[in-house]
Input
Amino acid sequence: MTAPRKLSRKAFQVFEGERWNAMNDLLALSELEDLTPIQRKAHLAYWYMSEVYNGGHWQYFCNKVHYDHEEVVESLLAVGAKEQAEILEKALAGFSQDIRYPETVEEFIAGYDEVDMHDLDTAFGSCTKKIEDCLEDYLDRYESEFIEWTP
Output
């Protein structure tokens, strides 16, 4: 089990973003198999968000090929990211598992154009509520899973 990150109340008083930073640190640096079920849901939603923000759905599928994508959909729903869950379901429906994953930057770029998930990437960016906002709400509900307060 991944222990919650220690967070000083004094540091939080100086900068309220420290709370998000503590959760972000836990989600970004932990191994999936070491997380509690609640942490795992946030982790899967976090990495979907991070990959799509940084390179679209093509990058997500390239970098997270080992993920159970149906579990990611369930995790998105659990954290309150319904629109994004629907987008990922559409991406899964249109994604061929036979696509060869890139080994070079050139292959990645060619694959991005070949797979053409631009509409899904645009829809993701247009969601009413962003995943990071959903994760902050999730943090409100399950704070003790992510943060251990210290003086």
User: Anything to note?
Assistant: Residues 5-150 form one domain. The first strand starts at residue 5 and ends at 8. The beta strands are 5-8, 147-150. Residues 7 and 149 are 5 Å apart (CA to CA).
